[in-house]
């Protein structure tokens, strides 16, 4: 039996409606328990998103895996535990999964950019002149040149512990990255208030390199708080400069992830 446990990383993930929407969007059919008070997280002394724990028929933890990857190894562990429990007909062939969009595994061979946060508590490599101004509205600028894995803001933003919020239209987030995919955890700060945005890659519309949440011209809309896939490159992976400009105020961003 598979049971999912959702332990929030960001404050908006405490909202049950956001969890229900994500479960539906990802077509998850197993039960998903919410762990808003971190009781399960603490009981397992867990420190990772995601974390997989494999229990045998006696309830003993026999294997675990932290982070993405090793999907075939995980499936073989499940097959072994099912066989030990006397479940017949499981076989030894590995399931072929046609994962698309955000569900596709990272291109580990080309990945040179780590996850990064936008809030001042955990951000790294923030390159706007003067650095972060915690907890106050501030007009930031993007430097003329970004080094690999540096990021910066342009426009009137407020940087809090876990997120940044745009106070006036036409604010920008820029990042220099090396990965097939670039995603941003973000959404409108006010519920039911869409925020339009436009993505550029090396100063041009992304074209075939657009992610699932933008079109070829780079246009997209924030409708609720979740992971937005903005770039998925089909060709050779090199250092690229990503920019997104929000045409409306009220955008809120939490973290970059790459794949």
Key words describing this protein structure:
32% strand; mainly beta; eleven-stranded antiparallel beta sheet; 259 residues
Report on the architecture of this protein.
With 259 residues, this protein is mainly β. Helices cover 11% and strands 32% of the residues. The protein is built from three helices and 15 strands. The strands form three sheets. Strands 5, 6, 7, 8, 9, 10, 11, 12, 13, 14 and 15 form an eleven-stranded antiparallel beta sheet that branches. The longest helix is centred in the first third of the chain and has 14 residues, at 71-84.
Which secondary-structure class do the elements indicate? mainly beta
Q: Helical stretch count?
A: 3
- Major pleated sheet: 11 strands, antiparallel
**Low-pLDDT stretches:** none
**Run of helices and strands:** EHEHEEHEEEEEEEEEEE
Bin the helical content. 10-25%
Mean pLDDT: 91
Strand content: 25-35%
- Choose one word for the global shape: globular
The number of distinct β-strands equals 15
Oligomer: single chain
